[in-house]
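Shall we go through a protein fold together, starting from nothing but its sequence? Please make up or recall a protein chain and show it to me in full. Go ahead whenever you are ready, and we will take it from there.
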Amino acid sequence: ACRMGGAPAEMAGRIERLMRIKAGEEKAGRFSVCDDATSGFLAGRCAVHAQRIVRADREMRFAALAAQLGEREKPAFAQLRAAAEIYANKSAGGEIDRSGTMRVAFVVARQAEVLSGFTTLLFALEDRRTPRPGVSFVDIDARLNTIYQGIMASAFPPSGIPGGIERNGIRNAERAWIAYRDSWVAFAMARYPWLDSSLLKAHLTEERVAFLENIEAMVD
């Protein structure tokens, strides 16, 4: 622990924790260098490592599902997965703060947020658990359009918005999200014929609105 280097606060925290374990003040368990991350550099490395593990588990679950799909469902699922990845990358690359030392961690966190939402919804539907959006698709879609147009009409870079968020980045992510939403509907029509597509679109739009509201607050 003493020879690992890194930020002074990380080393101090690591050694203090080891001392508490030695004194019996803290229970010994799994030990990771990431437990004491305080610098942007290590936080980014640890975020990437953690998501590598999550992705491996997600890929195994996707492979098991793909093996159960019919011939009509398989291409729709492949398209949906690709659309989810593109949206995650476009959003992480153009809709979050990438200006400071924590930029890698922020990018990974946004990618993880999108892909986690995708995975959660997918397996909820596999269990026949229908999304329960709070409003109709018509209403939430109108809200989305209002927020998006307001952001696009704002001056960039506005004084309250972090570096790294750009008008083109938001526009590209919005287009990727629309493709993601449409791919979801296409797959659901093949895989879940019992599902009301308006509920699915409302759920996906609620997620998008919740994210854009954070940007809207920075612009206002």
Q: What stands out?
A: Residues 40-66 form the longest helix (27 residues).
